[in-house]
Specification:
By secondary structure, the chain is an alpha/beta fold. It has ten helices and seven strands.
Length: about 270
């Protein structure tokens, strides 16, 4: 333990169960000396195990629907009261696609579901940042990280509307990162993580086969949830105080590898 976050205060969204990246981030932040508030939508909290995480990390829970500005206002107001001051870091780990859940092909998307996915998974990020900025809830030099996936840059047919939504999420990070950085020196980045064996990831059709494929392509193999949490901690820390408006790939080198010897061998194309 290096105490990279000693004395820092944060808000962590999206911790559903022990497999989630947000859960791992909370554990790591606690190990590194941070205090934080946990939050999730009420329905997700009923499905998850967030109370156990709160007990383990000595944290309080403030339920909030991230699509609701009033509830986000309450979240940041209560968080500052609970933690005794402004926030130093925020994790946005929120993603949901009804179209994926219902296995609707990209070319036949249900647009009501599509708009719901945008609101929950991308627009919520803008709302969260806008509320925090209006309340002046984040300290100068603070750090905000949102989790994304490289389907925002390349086509992955099984990712359907979430690919478009993640592209919007990354754009919000850049655009809001400029304004928040200029006015308050708050940095905003997205982390593009490897396919990860989380509860959400496992719900995507063909995930297991793609996980194995990506693992064979990446020279370091797939990055797991725990190593992603480590990376997020560095982004919350003062060690990365000049990094902002970036989409940062944390994928074992997958995004920079065109072809893999291992995959070619499995296809019988290389002796």
């Amino acid at each position: 333990m290096y105490n990279l976050l000693k004395g820092k205060r944060g808000v962590i969204t999206g911790a559903l169960d022990q497999n989630s990246i947000a859960w791992k981030v909370a554990e790591k932040a606690h190990e590194e000396g941070a205090e934080f508030v946990l939050t999730n939508a009420p329905i997700a909290m009923r499905m998850g195990e967030i109370n156990a995480l709160a007990e383990k990390t000595g944290s309080q829970i403030v339920p909030a629907d991230a699509t609701n500005v009033d509830e986000l206002t309450n979240l940041f107001t209560q968080s500052q009261e609970i933690l005794g001051g402004k926030i130093d870091f925020v994790l946005h780990s929120i993603g949901m696609s009804v179209n994926i859940r219902k296995k609707i092909p990209y070319t036949e998307l249900n647009y009501d579901y599509y708009q719901k996915g945008i609101d929950v998974s991308a627009l919520s990020f803008h709302k969260m940042l806008a509320v925090a900025k209006k309340l002046d809830a984040i300290n100068e030099g603070g750090s905000v990280v949102a989790l994304t996936y490289m389907a925002a840059q390349r086509t992955y047919p099984f990712y359907t509307d979430m690919a478009d939504i993640k592209a919007m999420l990354e754009s919000i990070a850049r655009s809001f990162g400029y304004h928040y950085g200029l006015e308050k020196k708050v940095r905003i980045n997205t982390v593009s993580q490897s396919p990860t064996k989380t509860t959400a990831g496992a719900g995507i059709k063909g995930f297991g086969d793609f996980y194995d494929y990506a693992n064979a392509i990446a020279p370091l193999g797939n990055a797991d949830a725990e190593s992603c949490a480590d990376y997020c901690i560095t982004l919350f820390s003062d060690l990365t105080r000049m990094v902002t408006m970036q989409n940062l790939f944390h994928d074992g080198g997958y995004s920079s590898t065109g072809v893999s010897d291992i995959v070619m061998q499995k296809m019988g194309l290389e002796e």
